[in-house]
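Appendix B. Chain record.
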Amino acid sequence: MQSPLEKILISSYKEEMITFLKTHPEYFDEAIRLAISDNQPFAWRSAFILFDCIDENDKRVKKQINAILNCIKDKKDGHQRELLKILYKMKLNKQQEGIVFDICIRLWEQIGKDPSVRMTALKFIIKTANKYPELLEEISFLLQEQYLVTLSPGVKNSIRKMINEVIKQDE
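Structure tokens predicted for this chain:
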């Protein structure tokens, strides 16, 4: 039998799902559990709405950061993107930053991955490199043309803008 949250996740548009979760905080823990699960179609949808229902460094998500990090590699592209977006809003400790940085490097290097996943991964890589400038040299190889070849002109342009911002900050 489906929970009220699960019913909303499969029968509503995004705004209705977000409104439900914001007005029924008692379902937040279930939403997190679903987001890190393999229980589709609920898992991806739950991760998708959580991003819009959490604050920066949300304390309700903080206790689940490690669980998110542990499951992200095994998810499909869109689900990975939504979990990364949740993590992007969180203040991670150094160990967690290292784990997500490694995950994002691996995602970025997979040129067959969905461009939105790769772009989200690159945003995380750049965020981390801005915090730890010594990483800028290490990641420069990730910005070579071979990693951009499968991307559309628009995505390439956005990525180049992101890269140029990093270069300007490093000067």
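Further analysis of this model is presented in Appendix C.
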